[in-house]
Amino acid sequence: MAQLWGGRFTKSTEQKVYDFNASILFDQKLLEQDIEGSIAHVVMLEKEGILTLEEKDLIVKGLTEIRDDVHDGKLVITSEYEDVHSFVEANLIDRIGDAGKKMHTGRSRNDQVALDMRLYIRGEVLNVSNDVVILLKTLYDIMENNLETYMPGFTHLQKAQPTTLSHHMGAYFEMFKRDYLRLQDIFKRLNYCPLGAGAFAGTTYPLDRNYTASLLGFEGPTLNSMDSVADRDYVIEFLSALSTIMMHLSRFSEEIIIWNSNEYRFVEIDDGFSTGSSIMPQKKNPDIAELVRGKTGRVYGALVSMLTTMKGIPLAYNKDMQEDKEVTFDAIKTVKDCLELFEGMLSTIRFNNQVMEKSAMKGFTNATDAADYLVNKGVPFRDAHGIIGRLVLVCIEKGKSIDELSLDELKEISPVFESDIYDAISLKTCVEKRLTIGAPGPSAMREVLKINKEFLDNIK
Prior knowledge:
The chain is mainly alpha-helical. Helices cover 62% and strands 4% of the residues. The strands form 2 sheets. Strands 1-2 form a two-stranded antiparallel sheet. A two-stranded antiparallel sheet has the order 3-4. A hairpin with a 2-residue loop joins strand 1 and strand 2. Helix 3 (31-47) runs antiparallel to helix 4 and helix 11 (287-310) runs antiparallel to helix 12 (324-348). The longest helix has 36 residues, at 109-144.
């Protein structure tokens, strides 16, 4: 059992205790970050005269070789080691001797693991951001190409008013745009370096924490050594952002599932993103959308787990905090997989434009516009609302849409109706009359597309 401690103990740790305490099976994922942080630390130690130039070069060379050997499969991380830190240090000492024992000068595992986790989360914030941008670009393309693809809009899962596919997709563009901006905010808050905080009270060595932070690309050092090692807010914030992304993906997936049903037939999912049934040969199932919807709870669970772990921990570091890794690693992988597969499904999906337009025409989605027509003819809105309500009942009894009724049938309900009612309640008119920014009218949507294009172009 390779450990970085033991001088104070008179007997070995029980194997079950060691196994329960060890984190090597999951924190080995932090190897790259651990070595990156150690290299920055020893470079700073040499700058401050705590290590000689020869010692620094020897340590950096040894760390680089360990990283390369692990990547090449020449060196295997095993459960012989308690954690990734002891793996790196033990192998470094084996390779370069006593110089390796000086690497840990002025550092604790507490600030070391805090650094590793920040570096890892920082990188994954950027990775997830990139995945969100890819999805945003796919949504933008659908919006741009469907300004006049009419469909019903819904409230309470009931057909409400006509809209366009461009407008509908624009709602999800706004959701994922907020997700992207939320990730950028998290990056700014987490981008401070805890290295140099020691166990929790700093160190007597003359460390240059600003220099270490700059070497690692941080804005600067954290400003309280206790908080530096006890803080996992950035993990919780990231898990919260991931949960919100999954909530948005799940809502989108639910609509795809509904639209894919035989009753709706709004979409045709590409064969590459569908599966069949082992017993029913006619089936083509939206499994990707269903799995994304299902995995949302898994990511929520990671957030709740971290909140629960942290809620009762006194300052400063406590072993409970080791629980931050497994759930976070799993949540990150889940979200990245879901974003990639959902975008692939969406980019290859076929929208059945005629079916959507027919659905909008058959669902009384133009009833509000019919009421507005009466208002423009001088009928008080409340009276107009009642007239159109009676008109819908007549349509239901006759199995017709409003625009399928003859003018005589319309006049039986209200003499105010004239032949211009048909143009007033056409889907094209209903949509095009909605011109305020954020509405589905083509001119309003073109303005939104311009804004969204600028947003995407400004992403570096």
